[in-house]
Amino acid sequence: MALYQMATFLVDVGFQGQDAGALRQARNWFEDVFRPFRVLVTAKREQTGTRCFGELPKDHTEVLLRERTTSQPLMWVTRRGKVLDVGLHILERAGSDLLSFFERAEELISNYVVTHLQRHLWIHAAALYKNSSLVLLIAPSGMGKTTLSLALLDRGYVLATDDVTLFDLEMGQLMPFPRCPRIRGNALGALRNSGFHLLERATLRGRYVVLPARHLHLAPIDCPVRGVHVFFLTREHAGVSAGVQPLTLSETIRLLAKQSNVLAQDPQLEFITTMLRHASVYRLDLGAFDDTLERIMEVTPQ
Q1: Residue 167 and which of 18, 119, 159, 182 are 20 to 30 A apart at CA?
Q2: Per-residue pLDDT for 53 more than 60?
Q3: CA atoms of 37 and 50, how far apart (whole Å)
Q4: CA-based torsion, 107, 110, 114, 117: positive or negative
Q5: How many Cβ atoms are within 10 Å of 265's Cβ, its own excluded?
Q6: Strand partners, 216
Q7: Is omega for the bond preceding 224 within 30 degrees of 0, making it cis?
């Protein structure tokens, strides 16, 4: 069962001192950003000075975010079977401040899901799929995984995840984690210069890119995949042209340990060794965006 089918997100959005427009904005934002996760959004507007939702639910509830000065809960999650009930108490916020709060909430919810999955191996990587071949872009945040992933959509790939790749060790499957990609810096300009006009195909919610379903791969992928191309993104040779260098299995495991929980979830390295048996693994030194994209396309199936 795909990850997005394992939990329904029930998001209660409570407002103090907000108008109906802000309430609609919250509903639309969550419905768009969490659409692949089967989100069900309810929204309540509370009168100024009253407490939203009364007391917090007591069963399996964890507060993820509190107001700095009063320690009032602003965000909490309650697990009820396959339903992840997310409560948000939004104080009077407007414009960019409200959007920043939403982005923080999305990040906390996604991290909560990843860290509470049992028997799942995660890798800090983007995963894309095309013609039964899998591309993994492994790197910490801020290295350009998302922008490269979006560019690969224009080359016929579909996106399983742009940030964290999950493997169900019991089922032997890659589980899509379909967060909306979050762009940084001059990502739109880089994509436009490469010939991909993203906003003609997608919608922006702040920094989040809401992709149409045709660009997403939401079904589990059975492992091992015959054609796997793994790229560890680096900036070790900044200022020079992008280049790829093949890596051995031992080099791959050493680098992978820094960007995953493989040693905790797969200490005998049985799953990951099987996964990499048919893989081509490279260190990709990042250069100019178009140059980097060209290096990826040179060694992956067309």
Answers
A1: 182
A2: no
A3: 31
A4: positive
A5: 16
A6: 159
A7: yes
Query: Are 232 and 247 within 8 A, CB to CB?
Result: yes
DSSP H or E run through 106: helix 95-115
Average pLDDT over residues 2-11: 51
CA–CA dist 61, 199 (Å, integer): 39
Choose among 56, 144, 141, 70: nearest CA to 107: 141
Beta bridge partners of 280: 229
Burial of 167 (0-12, 13-18, 19+ CB in 10 A): buried
Would you list the DSSP string of 248-264? -HHHHHHHHHTTBSHHH
Please list, in sequence order, all residues whose beta carbon lies within 8 angstroms of the beta carbon of residue 275, skipping any fewer than 6 positions away.
167, 223, 224, 225, 228
Predicted model pTM: 0.86
User: Which pLDDT tens digit goes with each residue over 140-169?
Assistant: 988 999 999 999 999 999 999 999 999 999
**What tokens appear for 282 in the block?**
């490279």
User: What is the Cα–Cα distance from 121 to 297, expressed in whole angstroms?
Assistant: 27
Half-sphere exposure of 201 (CA within 13 A, CB side): 17
Model confidence at 233, in pLDDT bands (50, 70, 90)?
very high
Q: Is the pLDDT of residue 199 over 50?
A: yes
Q: Distance between CA atoms of 141 and 144, rounded to whole angstroms? A: 8
Query: Residue 62 and residue 16: Cα distance in Å, rounded?
Result: 22
Q: What's the full length of the chain, in residues?
A: 302
